[in-house]
């Protein structure tokens, strides 16, 4: 697909801009330890990521993708998780190779950029600051910013409206089925990165890139 018509981009955070699994897993296992539970493998916790902190806590407590913990246990676990994660937000989290260069290249095209993540806004904003890329984005939409989160199209439509473009002129860049579904629901272009947490071959995105710099190349050269 030719994407030269795009006038703005929105990016998922975990699995797209940054590799956050080690810190998410650390917080989840410290939560479990405080509740007398054994640790989970990092790969298991990675399989539970993608639908926001509230869902991750349910899944980390039950070790089931569709698990629902007892409400009292979940509330206790949620408080523990957020406290632990906020205190160790960027111990091991790093930008993926080429992310900073790619974002800076896109900015040279005078394109507005946003973050649309299911991570809570109060955690996403400080993480972006710690990673040194917060100033590159016009806005940050977290999973708790609006009344709906991805895979709803609302956050993507909202990002487009704030940045002053039509949804069809926005590229939603992510690594998960939620990102593709949100793009489709909003009428945006679904762009998937090949290096993220989910198998890109299963996502059926409009465009697949191996780096954010490749987006710049596609915008410049097609």
From TrEMBL:
Residues noted as binding Mg(2+) in the record, renumbered to the chain: 12, 14, 175
Official protein name in the record: Phosphoglycolate phosphatase
Biological role stated in the UniProt entry: Specifically catalyzes the dephosphorylation of 2-phosphoglycolate. Is involved in the dissimilation of the intracellular 2-phosphoglycolate formed during the DNA repair of 3'-phosphoglycolate ends, a major class of DNA lesions induced by oxidative stress.
Species of origin: Crenobacter intestini
Catalytic activity: 2-phosphoglycolate + H2O = glycolate + phosphate
GO cellular component entries: cytosol
Keyword field contains Electron transport: no
Stated family: Belongs to the HAD-like hydrolase superfamily. CbbY/CbbZ/Gph/YieH family.
EC number: 3.1.3.18
Keyword Metal-binding recorded: yes
Keywords for the protein's UniProt record, in alphabetical order: Carbohydrate metabolism, Hydrolase, Magnesium, Metal-binding
Active site: 12 (nucleophile)
Pathway participation: Organic acid metabolism; glycolate biosynthesis; glycolate from 2-phosphoglycolate: step 1/1
Molecular-function GO terms, alphabetical: metal ion binding; phosphoglycolate phosphatase activity
């Amino acid at each position: 697909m030719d994407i030269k018509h795009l006038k703005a981009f929105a990016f998922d955070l975990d699995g797209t801009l940054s590799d956050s699994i080690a810190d998410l897993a650390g917080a989840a296992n410290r939560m479990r330890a405080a509740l007398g539970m054994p640790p989970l493998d990092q790969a298991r916790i990675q399989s539970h990521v993608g639908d926001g902190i509230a869902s991750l806590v349910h899944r980390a407590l039950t070790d089931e993708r569709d698990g629902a913990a007892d409400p009292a246990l979940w509330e206790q676990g949620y408080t523990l998780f957020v406290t632990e994660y906020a205190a160790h937000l960027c111990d091991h989290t790093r930008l993926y190779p080429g992310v900073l260069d790619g974002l800076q290249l896109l900015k040279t095209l005078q394109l507005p950029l946003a973050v649309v993540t299911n991570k809570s806004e109060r955690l996403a904003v400080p993480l972006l600051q710690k990673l040194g890329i917060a100033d590159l984005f016009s806005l940050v939409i977290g999973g708790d910013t609006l009344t709906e989160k991805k895979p709803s199209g609302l956050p993507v439509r909202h990002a487009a409206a704030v940045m002053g473009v039509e949804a069809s002129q926005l590229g939603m860049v992510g690594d998960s089925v939620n990102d593709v579904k949100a793009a489709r629901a909003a009428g945006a272009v679904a762009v998937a990165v090949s290096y993220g947490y989910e198998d890109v071959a299963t996502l059926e995105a409009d465009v697949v890139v191996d780096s954010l710099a490749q987006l710049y190349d596609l915008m410049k050269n097609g």
